[in-house]
Amino acid sequence: MSIHTLFIYIMASFLLSIILEKVETQKQDHFLDYIVVTILYIVVLAGIFSTYHITENNHTIFLIVLFQIIGSMIYQNVILEVSSLKNNDAQVKKYAINLMVAYLVNTFFISRVNSVFLNMEEVKLLLWLFLMLYFYYWFKNNITIPIPKNKKILFYQDREYIVMQYAKFKNRYGSLVYSRYRELVPTIFAIMIYENYYRPEMVRKIDHFKYRMFKRRGRFGIMQISSNHELTDEESIKMAIRRLENIYSKVSRDKRNSWNRISKVIFQYHRKDAREILNIDREIRNFIKK
What we know:
The structure is a single chain. This protein has helices at 3-26, 31-51, 63-79, 89-108, 120-142, 159-173, 185-198, 201-214, 233-251, 258-269, 274-289; strands spanning 218-220, 225-227. The protein is mostly helical.
């Protein structure tokens, strides 16, 4: 590096110090701005230096940042008689990161291109990109194309799905679904349909495999009963019926109507998803009545 280049770098570091001082005073949380302004500064200088051949090359332009750091330390320690680094880890971190980022930008970007400025071909591409973005946002904000939307039917609102699942499970587990409270039978199937939708048979088999591997408490069977050991679908149905009957025995004193009692049972059994299960239960009862 020639004396001429060294002098240019030192002069540029003074200007950088003034700019960074403005950044520090204007914003309390200025760390990111401090780094970005530094990088922008040396990139612009690299473009000017290479365009007008002010320096031999830009391979060491990151030294401007190093000189800026040295100049700031001298100014604070000698002129202001205030130690800039003593007991100030944040300042040390800021200087180190700023210098490291400047070095990386210098090595992997500035030194590898002939000019950091865009040529006319690149400007043309950039201009077309801005134009396309402008027209895209203008079209998006000013032109409305009506698109017909089909109302999404959730599975617990799909009567056909519920009836088909009810018929399938009644055929498969009908002999198990028995309760001394006849009102509960549709509810048992409703819970079965709901739990099976979110945890189908294949996923339940994976749950069993995971239990055999890790021996952790989980939810098992078609009724998704929480247990410390594996449960088959049939075992989970029996356990769910016992729990539902226990809840029903406590709310059966409500003589207002059957649906009110069933609603209370479902809310106590499965509070989080009670409304969805109630909807399935209602569809099953409507189908049975026909």
